[in-house]
Description:
This protein is α/β, with parallel strands linked by helices. The protein folds into two domains: about 325 residues, Zn peptidases (Aminopeptidase, 3-Layer(aba) Sandwich); about 110 residues, Alpha-Beta Plaits (2-Layer Sandwich). It is built from 16 helices and twelve strands. The strands form three sheets. A six-stranded mixed β-sheet has the order 1-2-4-3-5-12, covered by helices on one side. Helix 5 packs across helix 12. The two termini are about 45 Å apart.
Amino acid sequence: MAIADGLVALGYNRVMMQRLRRTFLLTFLLASAFFLLTSPASAQDTTTEKEAARDVLKKMATLEQALDVPGLVTRMTGPNATRDQVVARAKELMDKELLALADDIATHPEIGFEEKRSIGKLTDYLRQHNFTVETGTAGLSTAFVAKFKQNNGSPVLGVILEYDALRGTKGAFHGDQHSAQGPVGMAAAIAMAEYLARTKSPGSVIVYGTPGEEMMPPVAKTEMHLAHAFDGADVIIRSHASSVTARPAPGFGTCCLNIVGTKYTFSGAPTHQMTPWNGRNALTAMNLLFGNIDAVRPSIRPEARIQGYILEGGTAPNVVPDRTVADFYIRYPDEVYLAQVVEFVDNAAKAAALATGTKVKIDHYSHLVDGVSLATLGDLGFAYMKSFGATGVTDVPGKPQGFEETGSVSRDIPGIGISAQTSTFSNHTYEMDADNLKEIGHKGFTVDAQTMTAVLFDFATHADYRAAVKQEFDGIKALFGEYQSALKKTYTVPTVPDPK
C-alpha cells in the first residue's frame, strides 16, 4: 500500500490529502534548496561532525600530503605501451561484443533478486573466457563468484558486477544503468586475466555478481561479505552510471546518509467495527506511530530523515484491522547519532502499541553505513577517465563515500567506483534508461571499462603503488575510529530525572 493509500485508510479525506500534498511539496522544495545551498563537499555533513572531525581531518591532510598522490598519479599515467595494449583489449571487447550485451540487458530489465536471464548472459560469457562460476553465493540465487582458471596468487583483483533494474510504475527499467555494469566489469576482468596468463605474471582475477543493489532486504553485498565471498581480495573495483565524470574525496562517508531499514508490524485483535471495544485496532496503533514520530521530531537533530510508508493497513472497512505493517528508512549523516534516532522511532512504536493495547514487532532488517574512499585509487581513476575522453568532467572531488553503497565491504577492502558520464539526466529516470542505448551511454561505458582496466593494471604491476594504497587505507581506517570515538563523546544524552 502506498503512503497515500495508508493516509486514506487512516481517515484522511481528499481535501486533507490535497493539503498534505501541497505541504509536502513545499517542504520538499525548501529542503532541497537548503541542501543545495549548504551541502559541503567535505567528509562531514553537520557542524557537529565537522567539529568532532577537526583533528582527524588535519591528520588526514598530513597523510595525503605524505603520500604525494599527484606525483603518484603522474608516474602511473605516464607512457606505458603494455598497459595501453591491455586497455585496448578491454575496449575491443566492449566494441565487438559487450556493448551489445549491455543493450540486450537494458532492453530485458529484471528487478533485484529476479535477474535470472541477466546472470545467465553474464556467467555464460565468463565461462567462455576461461572463468569458473559458482552461483547462489550467501544463499542468494542470483549472486555469483567467478574465478579465472589460470589465477596465480597475489595480488587478487576483484571486480563487482551489478545487473538489477529499478522498479517503476511502468514496470522494471534500467534508469540507473546497471545493465552495463556487468559488461563493463567483464571487459576489465577478462583483459587483465588474459594479460596475467599470457605473461605468467603473479596475480588473480575474481568477479563478484552482486544482485538487488536497488532493494533491501537483504543487502546483497553485506550478506556476501558476511559469507566471506570477498575474503582475500586486495582491491575491488566497479563502475556506476553518472550524469557527470567525477570521483569522491578521500575519507569516510556515504552518498545518501547512513540508513537503518526497519519494519514495524502491529498485531491487534479483529472484531466488527460496530463493536470495536471487543478488539484491538492495529491501524490505530500505526496511526499513533506516525503521530508519535512527528511529536518527537523537535527532540531529534534536524539532519535526520525518517521516511516511512504503510505496507498493510487492514482488509475491510467493517473489520477492526488486526495487522498493520510499515517500512521505514531511518537516516542520519553518521551512524553514531543514528543509533539515537532509531531508538526514538522504536520507542514511538512501543508507545503506540502500549497505548492501544496492541503488540509491535520491530525488525531492523538492514544497515547502510559510511564507507572508505581513497585518493590513491580515486584520483588515478579520474585521471584515466579524462585521458580516455570522458565528458562532463567535474574537477572538484565530491564527498567521500565507499565504492559500494552498503559501506561494509569498503571498510575492509580498498576499492574504487569508476563513474564516467553516461547520461546527461539524473539517476533513476526514464531518460537515463534511454541513454543506455545512445552514444553518450556507450562512450561512457567504454571509458569506464578502459579506466577500470588501467587501474587494475597499475595495481597488479607496481608494488609501490599497492603499498601506497594500503598505507592510505590503513591510515584512513584508523582515523575513522578516532572520528567515531569523538562523536560518541559529543552526542551526549540528557539526563531525565524521575518525577517527584
